[in-house]
Design a protein that fits this description.
Oligomer: single chain
CATH architecture: 3-Layer(aba) Sandwich
Largest sheet: 6 strands, mixed
Helix content: 25-40%
Strand content: 15-25%
Order of helices and strands: HHEEEHEHHEHEHEHEHH
Distance between the termini: 43 Å
Number of helices: 10
Number of strands: 8
Shape: globular
CATH topology: Rossmann fold
CATH class: Alpha Beta
Structural class: alpha/beta
Length: 320
């Protein structure tokens, strides 16, 4: 597929297409990813959300001796526990990012409902930690949330798992692994415009030059995460490989039409619905990858933010 013309983007987003394509260009290069991690992500570490409880914990790894997982814990100030808890997996193509990059999302959810959010700084492929290191860290985190629920002030019977982009893919992978292991119950999952399929065979996955993310950035990210496997990719590494979706928890998702993950996200939701899983899903015409983060104040972004927040509140009320 050739570069999507500017006319294919929603009118609200066209001013952001140029900067978005610049992000795509940078993200195709390992030095560019390292630059973004150093100068855009690391300065966020330790930031707090005003008016909310902000804590930090360190969780011992069960797979790597001596390794501990830094995790941020956020709660509405004054909320009495035990609170329903969400494990949030930050985005960044499995290769970069920090939990603090999602503060706007956390604040929106905590304003809607009393929920504790635990966000691990899982190991990243760009730092030399490919699959399964990051997934192992997330699995250790949710097990810690259950075993230390009283200490954290959260419920230990049902959990929410959520994430955007690469974090959305990790959300699906973690949900699959947790359900298979039977270690905790997942009330619902929120894989938002998730990175699910390393095969990159869909039509939308062929986009080149699309804003923020395209085929080339996607291919490099998957190679950073899975290249060491030599083609022997398990379903927890690439969640679209899973054939049996029965028994998975209710799912919320959305995606734009002008981004590589459109088709794989739609296919995942279709497969969940065919397996009898309740879903809330919306396709945003003319949306590029992460548009609600790049241009949060325009109409389509406000609509996307409202959709994910209201769907969260609806599922919270129904399933918790």
């Amino acid at each position: 597929m050739t570069k999507p013309p500017k006319s294919s983007y929603h009118p609200d987003l066209r001013r952001g297409v140029g900067p978005g394509r610049a992000v795509t260009w940078i993200a195709r290069r390992r030095w560019g990813l390292r630059m973004m991690q150093r100068f855009a992500m690391r300065p966020l570490v330790g930031n707090e959300i005003d008016g909310f409880s902000n804590d930090e914990i360190f969780i011992p790894s069960t797979t790597t001796p001596g390794h501990s997982i830094r995790a941020r814990v956020y709660k509405p100030s004054g909320a009495t526990g035990p609170l329903p808890a969400m494990l949030y997996v930050h985005g960044g193509g499995y290769q970069m990012g920090v939990p603090e990059q999602a503060h706007a999302f956390f604040e929106d959810l905590m304003q809607r409902r009393d929920v504790a959010i635990v966000a691990p700084a899982y190991r990243l492929s760009l730092a030399g930690h490919p699959f399964p290191a990051g997934l192992d860290d997330c699995f250790d985190t949710i097990n810690h949330m259950k075993s230390h629920a009283a200490e954290l002030g959260v419920r230990n019977d049902k959990f929410i798992i959520a994430g955007h982009s690469g974090g959305g893919g990790m959300t699906a992978a973690l949900t699959h692994r947790v359900v298979d292991a039977g270690v905790v119950e997942v009330a619902f999952q929120m894989p938002i415009y998730p990175m699910l399929d390393h095969r990159m065979q869909t039509e939308s996955a062929q986009m080149v030059g699309s804003a923020v993310w395209d085929r080339r950035t996607n291919a490099m990210a998957w190679d950073n995460y899975l290249g060491h496997l030599g083609g022997n990719v398990p379903e927890y590494a690439s969640p679209a490989l899973r054939q049996d979706l029965s028994g998975l928890p209710p799912t919320i998702s959305w995606v734009g039409t002008v981004e590589p993950f459109k088709d794989e996200t739609s296919a995942y939701i279709d497969a969940l619905e065919a397996a009898g899983v309740p879903t809330r899903f919306k396709l945003f015409e003319g949306g590029f990858h992460g548009f609600e983060i790049m241009s949060p104040k325009v109409g389509i972004s406000e609509e996307a933010i409202q959709f994910q927040g209201s769907a969260f509140a609806e599922f919270y009320d129904h399933y918790l």
